[in-house]
Structure formats: C-alpha cells, structure tokens
Amino acid sequence: MHVTRLELADFRSYGSVEIELRPGPVAFVGANGQGKTNLVEAIDYLATLDSHRVSSDTPLVRAGAERAIVRAQLQREDRSALLELEITPGRSNRARVNGNPLPRVRDLVGIARTVLFSPEDLALVKGDPSDRRRFLDHLVVMRTPRFAGVKADYDRVLKQRNTLLKTAGRRSNVEISTLDIWDENLARTGGQLVAARLALLDALAPHATDAYRDVAAGAAAERQVVSLVYKPSVEGVEELRDPDDIAKALLDEIGRRRREELERGISLVGPHRDDVLLGIGDLPAKGYASHGESWSLALALRLAAFALLREDGDDPILILDDVFAELDSDRRSRLAARVAGAEQVLVTAAVEGDVPTELVGQSFDVAGAVVTPRD
Ligand SMILES: Nc1ncnc2c1ncn2[C@@H]1O[C@H](COP(=O)(O)OP(=O)(O)OP(=O)(O)O)[C@@H](O)[C@H]1O
Ligand SMILES: [Mg+2]
C-alpha cells in the first residue's frame, strides 16, 4: 500500500499542509526542528493511533488550536480509501473512512499499515520490557486488528482489578469475592494476548535472524542466530500456544499469589509483566551487545516486522525517521538495499547527503512547517 496524498490541519507545527506522494522512495529534507518528523508521525499515527514520541494526544495538536486533522488517501492495489482522523485532546477522537464515521476510533487501526524506524528504536534492545511489549502488541494489532479490542479490554480489566486490590486489601470479604470475577477476566483476556504474542514471535524469529545477517556487517554476523524468547510472568507459559491453556496457567498463578497481590495492591501476573529476551548467538543482547550490534538488532526487528506484514500480502508503508545519520556507511547501504524495493518508503533526513542513493526518488524540502516538492 502507499499514501497518495496527505493533508494536515493544526497537527504539530503545521497550520495547514497538503502534499501529493508517489510510490517508491520519498525523502523529506530540512534542518532540525523544521517539521520532517511531524509529517511522518502523522501518517504513522493514522495507522496505529500511537506516536513514537508521545503517549498523550495534546502535543499532536498545534499549540493554541483545539483539534488536529490528519487526512490521507491510501492506495492499496487498485483500491483507494480516504482515511480521516480528528484529534481532540481531552475528548474522544473521531475517525472516518471514505466519509463514513467509524463507530469506534480504534477501528481505524491497521487499515493503513506502517513500519516506523527511528533513533528511539535502540530502546527495543536496551530499554525497559515495556518497550518490547509495545513493539509486540503493535505488530499483533497491525496483523490482526481485532486484537486492538482484546488489548483495550485487558488494559481496562487490569486497571479495575488494581483499583480493587488496593481497596480490598484493607476491607471486606465482599470485595474479595468480586476479585474472583476480575481474576477470570484478567486471565481470559491475558491468555488471548499472550497467545497472540507467542504466535507472533514464532513467525518473527526467522525473519529477525535473516534481517540481522543482512544488516550487521562482518562475517561473524552472517553466522549468528537471533533469538526472541518470551519471558512470561508465569514460568512455563512460553511453552504453551492455546489461549485457554494460557488463561488457565495465569489463573492458577493468580490464585497462588493472591495474598501477595493484596499486600502490594497491584496485579503481579499477566502480560503486562512479561518481556522478550533478545539474544545474538548464545548471549543476551541487553548488557552484552555492543552499541553497533544493538543498533543492528533493533533494525533487524523492524525489518522482520516489515517482512512479516509483506508476507501477509501487502507491503506496509515504511517510515525511516532520521535513521541513516545514526548509522555507519556500511550499515546505511545494507539497510537501504533491504528496503529499496518496498512499495513506499518515507525517509527524513537533515541533509540530502544522508539519503542513500538507493532511496533517491521523490523529494521535498521542509522548512518552517512549509513543505515544497523539489520536482
Ligand atoms: N503541538 C505543537 N504545536 C506547535 N509546534 C509544535 C508542536 N509540536 C511540535 N512542534 C514544533 O515542531 C518542531 C519539531 O518538528 P519535527 O520534530 O518534525 O522536526 P524535524 O524536522 O524532524 O527535526 P529534527 O531534524 O531535529 O528531527 C519543533 O520546533 C516543535 O517546537
Ligand atoms: Mg525529526
């Protein structure tokens, strides 16, 4: 798929902008702070309803404005769709497809599919478990949009259960019996989420090794195996695959740890406590891999995500935000070669020289939130 037209109103630094995009490589070039990332962030947000830079909506809306609008014409094979999103901080956002309002804004997720590479990706390897969980859940939802609902249900159950644990620890048995219901809800939705993550990791792992060998320089890298091992909060769950079996294992463990949970007032069992252990060869990446190896692994994970979505039948839109400046020339050209054949690749760079020759195509100058096509 690819975007043929992007329109923003009061999004980030943009008052209003309209650009026509072609398939193939598209570069946005301009000095720091001119609005390059803002452009690609808008497209990624339309696809995922999530930003790689912020967790709240407020910074997405131009300072002083009430709401932002992102509108994109999406082309998928011979079909075209107009996606529209209205972002109003503090109120619920609204989405439309071809002019028709969607009942829930989250139904928009996954209609446009993106894979975004950014300097923040290093956190996939070096950062907290939450960074890796976010990566997994994002990809699960991109591939199977109904999981946006499962994830939302899980988050809601977790929040309400935590509230109950905080009060029930100090109060009556009545509330402890309501806790049983929340235990089951948590285990059921958690079981579905964990099963989806495990299936994803199974599918992703071979692509990650393949991409790592391509991107990391040197003969040693070409023999390395990248491992992605799920580290659940309940030992043994990583061996299971059936959501009901996983739910049962979660529920058993919740039963065993009830006293501890009541004492601490938080949920200690479930996918919100899980992690993925990344390894290169026999060693864990975190704490062992060099800076360059960590970068290669982070890129490999994104490339694996791209390969997987491509396998589902359609290229996602690739977004490479400021990544080439971070890489040495060898990795730069290896990465560029790997993505050059994608249906559409959006690249941001502070200077034109940072755009690899493989990715020279349509290009825009970005200065002071004004976007000007070069040709
Ligand atoms: N909600 C907002 N309202 C107004 N301006 C904003 C808002 N959010 C961000 N900006 C401005 O947008 C600019 C940053 O834009 P962006 O991140 O797209 O820059 P960039 O071109 O990618 O720069 P770099 O090369 O440094 O990555 C900053 O000047 C910031 O102040
Ligand atoms: Mg930027």
UniProtKB/TrEMBL annotation:
Domain of life: Bacteria
The entry's keywords: ATP-binding, Cytoplasm, DNA damage, DNA repair, DNA replication, DNA-binding, Nucleotide-binding, SOS response
A GO biological process held by the record: DNA replication
Entry GO CC: cytoplasm
Residues annotated as binding ATP: 30-37
Location of this chain's protein in the cell: Cytoplasm
Keyword Cytoplasm: yes
Positions of the RecF/RecN/SMC N-terminal domain: 3-350
GO MF annotation terms: ATP binding; single-stranded DNA binding
Pfam families from the UniProt entry: SMC_N
Record family assignment: Belongs to the RecF family.
Function comment: The RecF protein is involved in DNA metabolism; it is required for DNA replication and normal SOS inducibility. RecF binds preferentially to single-stranded, linear DNA. It also seems to bind ATP.
Name of the protein in question: DNA replication and repair protein RecF
Organism lineage: Bacteria, Bacillati, Actinomycetota, Actinomycetes, Propionibacteriales
